Amino acid sequence: MSSSSPRSSGRQPRTPQAVRARKARRARTAAFLPAASAVALAVWSVWCFGGASAPPTTVAVSVGGAVVLAAGAAYFLLVSGNAGFFGALSLVGGLLLTAAAADQAAARDEVVECVVVKVVGEHKEAFVDGGLDTTLYHHTLRCPGGYPSTMAKDRRLAPDGGTIRVAYDSRRRVGPVVEGSTAPWLQGLLAVIALTASTAGARHVSLRWTRPEPGPNPRRTRRGR
Q: Would you say 79 and 183 are in contact if contact means Cβ atoms under 8 Å apart?
């Protein structure tokens, strides 16, 4: 009677060292996500705002939003835990700021002088207790050619009947602004800070899993034995 040998599953059990090495590799991969996704989103935004053959606004926003969500989800899955959650939030915020900086830097090739017909303030309460309430001022404009007809800002640009100079994109791919008010440097700086924080978080997690586990503490021998 022949003895049967136990079947092997073909998969070796993962050792603690292998698990730590796998988590370290995943975190190292996540450390490259902020820079790579920011460059991809910046290139896409610049093309959509100023390219001669740019896609429609719906397509541009959909693709840009997909890049932001995919990057945040990938970061969270690769890092996981609290570090993954807060790092993903920082990454998403940095990418949104990157798109905002590209919007501010986009060319607005036409400038017109518009009459402010009426200004209506819209009061918005803070979402959380203790937060600051804000007021959004909706300006009704009368501009040569009929565009733009409205503009919403966080401050009153001029009294009723006053005039303002408005810069706008003749292809209407970016919103109109008051002439000389666009400055992408603040959004760009905040984007760099947020993206650096998410990169540093992934790098820290990678180094933590790379360090060897501390050995067990030796038992103390009793005196007199």
A: no
d(CA 108, CA 101): 14
3-state secondary structure at position 139: strand
**Which residues, including other chains, have CB under 8 Å from residue 23's CB and lie 6 or more apart?**
205, 209
Q: Which two tokens stand for residue 196?
A: 């650096």
Model confidence, pTM: 0.73
Q: Name 121's bridge partners.
A: 137
pLDDT beyond 80 at 6:
no
Stated length of the chain: 225
Q: What is the DSSP letter of 170?
A: T
Instruction: Look at residue 71 and give its three-state secondary structure.
Output: helix
Count CB-CB contacts under 10 A for residue 67: 18
Specify the DSSP element, H or E, that contains 189.
helix 185-210
Higher pLDDT, 200 or 216: 200
Q: Which amino acid is at 210?
A: T
- How far CA 126 is from CA of 29, 151, 217, in Å, comes to 38, 22, 53
Q: Which of 202, 217, 220, 221 is nearest to 82 (CA)?
A: 202
Q: Is 53 helix (H, G, I), strand (E, B) or coil?
A: coil
CB atoms under 10 Å from CB of 219, counted, come to 6
